[in-house]
Amino acid sequence: MKRLNNILLSVVAVSICSPLALAQDTQWPSKPITVIVPYTPGGSTDTVARVVMQKLSERLGQTIVVENKPGANSTIGVAQAARAPADGYTFVTILAAYAVNFSLYDLNYKAEDFVPVSHIADLPLFLFTSKDIPAKNLQELLEYGKTHPLTYGSSGNGSSSHMTGAHFAQITGLDMTHVPYRGSAPILADLLAGRVSMTFDPILVPMPHVKEGKLNVVGVTSAKRFAGEDDIPTFEEQGYKGFVMNSWTSLLAPKGTPDAVVQRVSKEIAEIVKEPDVIEKFKNAGFVPVGSTPAELNHLIERDRALYKKIIDEAKITLK
Known about the structure:
Radius of gyration: 22 Å
C-alpha cells in the first residue's frame, strides 16, 4: 500500500510540475522558434526585429523564423500570437500602437493573453515642418500657429504620429487638423509640396530633406537628443516638461510561456542591444537600444495605455 501511495504521489508531482521544470526537461529550445512581426517586410520595425533575432538565434543555437503578418495597425499578427501555444516557441514584436489599439479597436485578444519579455528599443519622433512655415523652434511654431491654420499628417488613425500630434495640440492649445495617410511616403510628398504643415515621424526618411534645405525640423520627442543629431533639442528642453512620446518596439510571448524561457530571452536581448554593431544598425534605422526586464516592459505598456486612452478620449478619436 505504501509503495502504491508513493507511485501516486510521483504521478501527481509530474502532472503539476512547474513551467520551469518543463522548460528544463525539454532542453529549450529544441526546435525552431517563430517570431511574428505584425508589419510588412523591409520596414524599420522588421529590420530591427531581424537584427535582434539573428543575434538571438546565434546565442541560443537554434533557428528563429521571422513571420510577417501585417494589417489593421498590427492587430492581425498580435491576434495570431495570442492563439499560439504557450510553449516558448512563439513570440511577437509590438510597437507603441499595441498600447493604442486597446482604446480604438474591438479586439479579439486581451492584454492578459500575453506576458512581457523585453522593451527592445525606443523610436524617437521628430517634428518636421514644411519650408513654408517660418519656424525654427517650438516657440516660433506656437506663435505662427496662433494666426495660421495648421495641419499635421500621420501614418493613419491610431498611429504613434497621430497620438503625438493630438497630444501636442492638446497641451499647446493649437488648432491643428489631423490628416491621416496610408504610410509615411505620401505624407512626405505633401510635406515637401507644402500641402500639409507638419508631421511627427522617425528620423530615417525625412532627415535627408532637412539636410538639403527642403524641410525644417524643430524638435525631438525623446528624453535625450538623438545621437548624431545633437543640434536638435528635445521638447522638454524647449519648455514642454514631461513631453516624451517615443514610439517603441518590444517583445511579448503568449500567456503561460515558461518563465525560465521568458527570463532567458529577456536577458539575452538586454545583452544583444549593447553590442556595437547592433547599436549602429539601430541608429541607422532611427532606433535607440534599451533592453529591459519583463517587469519594466509591463510598466511601459500600462503607462502608455493610460496615456493614449486619455488622449483618445479627450480628442474623441475614432476609427471612423
